[in-house]
Amino acid sequence: MAVAVKSVETSDVETEQLATGCEAIAEAIRLADVDVMAAYPIRPYDGVMQAAAKLIANGKMDVEYIVADGEHSQFEIVKHACAVGSRVFVGSSGVGWFYAFEAIAVTAGLRLPVVAICGNRALDDPGAFGTEHNDSLAVRDLGWLLPWAETAQEALDLALMAWRVGEDKRVSLPVAIGLDGAFLTHSQQIVKIPTQAAVDKFLPPFDLGDRLLHPDNPITIAPQVDQDWLMEIRMQNDQAMRKAEGVIREAHADFKKLFGRGGESPFLDEYMTDDAEFVFFGQGTLALPMKVAIRRLRKEGHKVGLVRLKWFRPFATEEIVRSLSRFKAIGVIDRDYSFGSPHYGGVLYNEVRSALYSQPKRPVVVGFIAGLGGREIEQPMAQEIFEKTKAAASGDLKAGDTCHWIGVRS
Amino acid sequence: MTEASITVEVVYRGIFQKTLAQRICRAIVLAARKRGHTGTAFARYGDSPERNGVPAKQFAVVAVNDIELEASMAKYEPAVVDVSIAVDDTLVKGVESWAWYGRQPIWKPVRKDGFLLVTSEKTPDEVLSQTDTAERPFSLVVVPGAASFAGLWVFKDDHTDYRVLGALAKVAPDWVRLDDVKALIKEQTKDEAAVQSAQYGYDGTRIRPVKPGEGTSGHEKLQFDKPGWTTMRPGIVVDARKPGERNPFYKKYSARTLRPVVNFDTCIKCTMCWLDCPDECFEVTPEGHYEVVYEACIGCGICAQVCPVKDCIVMVDELKFDDNTNKWDLWKKDRASYNQWFEKMSGVPADPKAVARASTAATNASPAANPTTSAGGDD
Question: Is residue B276 helix, strand or coil?
Answer without folding.
Answer: helix
